[in-house]
Amino acid sequence: MLSLQCQAQNYGWGRPAGTSEVAKLAQLNGSSIDESQPYAELWMGTHPNCPSMICTTGSPLAQWIEAHPDCLGLKVQQRFGRSLPFLFK
């Protein structure tokens, strides 16, 4: 199992940091929180705008998946290739 550093996205429709589950999760995951920003989404995956990083190495999850493509399984590879395009909102 890989421990990931995931990033939060700030959008105007998000919740204030103090009441946002996204901000709480991001902070628990090691991110600093800007109390003046709304928090809307926690992105976990290989999206190039906000990629997850592997905690132990600091390298992008996409790089690890490229080196270990079987980790995704055949059905996922057939549909998405060697990426993990899921966003948890």
Automatic annotation (TrEMBL):
The keyword Isomerase applies. Coiled coil: none annotated. Residues 1-89 form the Phosphomannose isomerase type I catalytic domain. One of its GO terms (molecular function) is isomerase activity. InterPro entries: Mannose-6-P_Isomerase, PMI_typeI_cat, RmlC-like_jellyroll, RmlC_Cupin_sf. Keywords: Isomerase. This is Mannose-6-phosphate isomerase. It comes from Dunaliella salina.
